[in-house]
Amino acid sequence: MHRVYNSAFMNMLRDEKNADYHLVMKNTLEFDPEVLKRYVNFMNNPDEKTAVEQFGKGDKYFGIATLMATLPGLPMFGHGQIEGLTERYGMEYPRAYYDEQPDGDLVARHAHEIFPLLRRRYLFAGVENFLLYDFFTADGRVNEDVFAYSNRVGGERSLIVYHNKFAEARGWIRTSVGYAVKTGNGDEKQIAQKNLGDGLGLHADENDFAIFRDFANGLEYIRSSQELCERGLYIELHAYQRNVFLDWREVRDDAGLYARLAADLNGRGVPSVEEALHELVLQPVLAPFRELVNPGMFRWLLGNRVREPKGAVNAAALDEAEQKMFSLLRAIERFAGGVGDEVAIAASTRRELDALLQLPITRYRFASRPRKYQTALQFLDANDTLWSVLFGWLCVHSLGQIVGADDAALTSRAWIDEWRLGKIIAETLRALGLDEDAAGQAVTAIKILTAHPHALATPRVSEILEALLNDNVAQQFLRVNRWDGILWFNQEAFEQWLAATFAVAVVEITAPPRQTKATAAKEIAARGDAVEKLLRAEAESKFQVAGLLAAARQTDAPKRKPMNRKDAKGAKKKSRKRL
User: Fold this and answer.
1) Quick one: CA dihedral 313, 319, 320, 321, positive or negative?
2) Which listed residue, 52, 85, 264, 400, has the most CB atoms within 10 A of its CB?
3) Exposure string (b/e) for 122-137, b if CB count within 10 Å is 16 or more?
4) What's the rounded Cα separation, in Å, for the pair 297 and 320?
């Protein structure tokens, strides 16, 4: 038979006779690596106990299944193995006798962890570039409980590592075991070995770095190619832990940035090496930004909100925020070549923070209290999420002014993404208790507030909505979607945007030092009037975008006075004359 049932795979790995199975593989490689392609590796069959009975459903099962999916040869899954069925099926069984249902979690874990590997069998099935490695501990001993092997097809590379023992393992993958190579002289063969760098086709140059992703945890890693060639790869493994290193690529590091990143990470994995490299370049800006935007700072500011009508803002909170903003602006000035006045911008931020922390007592701050002003203040109801949005907005909306750009607001908004400021804000908000979706929505809201700083100052509410709905980021926040040929928006998101926009408007109105109380009250009342009109338009819209715009335009339409009797008579005469 061309294929050979490899029962040693199942029996030895199940019983953790790892040294014995290493010996099976080593003997095969020294005899003829091509034999590995003939093995049929399996974890159960009709003559054996079920896989779930032999290997369980935990990390050991998935470690062995990973070996089965990534070793040369043919992986064979037994009947009911993926579903976690416990009935042992004989070849003579016409039907199942147990009333069993598939284990949905087990099937889902296969779909996530094993099936993608089976789709890349072309990378694992051959033996032309297959190498099995010894795993050396710090004292030079070979730990047979760790299986490590690499393979290559074209420019694609893989390195699989699995620890088949309930224990901890630390060591180096450096040198392959011996394998037979034909000399070209008849059937004569000789035993060869390679180091890890050669096995992966890497360059032993100090300016080359290898980047690879662990499919098991989704993180990317970076290592010096020279180190991988000369010293190998150091790995620490928990019980039944596996690494599936795929998507290898080499980069040239003439500028020394990758070397700095590798030293900074010190072996740690990151979601994206390129993202981490970008953050390393931005570190002169990100470091002072993190001093300003962090859970501790936001909690302290929340604790300094003014609650009593005659209360005052803690001067220490204002001093610290102003100083940190100044440091951030100075860093941006050096990084981006700014020409703005960081002292003035930081002082403006201080005044805005002063006004922001007094939002809870806004209704008591002004002597002039017209009815419309008091009505407008009903929209000033900030919950914890809105406070987080407002603090985030305060820290980013004026940054673009430091480069003196005409479109400073759009520059500030662009930096939220380009400089990864939004990522830091989201991390801060998650630490304050927001979930992933809420933190993402909050960052999106900050982008909208930054790009549209004076939205409610426009007297025509239809223009407010048109500007908003022409913004892709705002559409994302409002969850605009098309269903059944109609564009819809989300009510809750729309009202969250209105609340945040009104709160920002109040801060901007009350922050200027020379603003009179009467003028401030009048402007707040005008913004409240706009909010009221927008809420009426929302109520008439049935949450359809077209309906929202139509209702807003109807609100903006000039109201015609009814004609009196004299005007009607004159209009009638003019009509007859034209006829």
Assistant:
1) positive
2) 400
3) ebbbbbebbbbbbbbe
4) 10
What's CA 555's distance to the chain center, in Å?
41
Give the pLDDT confidence score for residue 201 in this predicted structure.
95
Picking from 432, 333, 339, the residue whose alpha carbon sits closest to that of residue 392 is 432
Name residues whose C-beta falls within 8 Å of residue 334's C-beta, 6 or more positions apart in sequence.
Answer: 284
321 within 8 A of 349, measured Cβ to Cβ: yes
Please give the pLDDT value at position 457. Answer: 87
CA dihedral 460, 533, 360, 352 (to 10 degrees): -10
Residue 206 lies inside a defined structural domain of this protein: yes
Which amino acid type is present at position 294? N
Question: Residue 560 gets which letter from DSSP?
Answer: P
Alpha carbon of residue 264 to chain centroid:
21
Read out DSSP for 19-36? HHHHHHHHHHHHH-GGGG
Structure tokens at 484: 């059944």
Three-state DSSP class for residue 502? helix
pLDDT score recorded for residue 579:
34
Residues 80 and 211 in one domain: no
In-domain check, residue 277: no
Residues of the chain with pLDDT under 50: 563, 568, 571-572, 574-579
Q: How far apart are CA 520 and CA 372, in angstroms?
A: 12
Look at the chain and report how many structural domains it folds into.
3
> What torsion, rounded to 10 degrees, do the Cα atoms 80, 81, 83, 87 define?
50
Q: How many residues are recorded in the chain?
A: 579
Q: Which residues of 178-198 are buried (b: 16+ CB within 10 A; e: fewer)?
A: ebbeeeeeeeeeeeeeebbbb
Q: What is the residue range of 376's domain?
A: 283-464+497-530
Give the bridge partners for 235, in sequence order: 171
The secondary structure element, H or E, covering residue 180 is strand 179-182
Q: Look up residue 547 and give its two tokens.
A: 């309906």
Whether 177 and 265 map to the same domain: the answer is yes
The DSSP call for residue 286 is: H
Q: What is the C-alpha separation between 127 and 124, in angstroms, rounded? A: 8
Write down the residue that tokens 């072996």 correspond to: 267
The pTM of this model reads 0.79
**pLDDT at residue 376 in the model:** 74
Treating both helix axes as pointing N-terminal to C-terminal, what angle do 545-556 and 517-541 enclose, rounded to 10 degrees? Answer: 130
**Residues 121 and 136 occupy one common structural domain:** no
Residue 98 Cα to chain centre, angstroms: 44
The residues that bridge with 213 in the sheet, in sequence order, are: 220, 246
List 148's β-bridge partners, or say none. Answer: 133, 161
Per residue, what are the HEC states of 36-49? HHHEEEECCCCCCC
Q: What is the DSSP string of 79-101?
A: TTTTTT--PPPPTT-SS--S---
- Is 251 found in the same domain as 292? no
Looking at residue 570, its pLDDT comes to: 53
Cα distance between the two ends of the chain: 105
Task: Examine the domain organization and report whether 374 and 458 are in the same domain.
Answer: yes
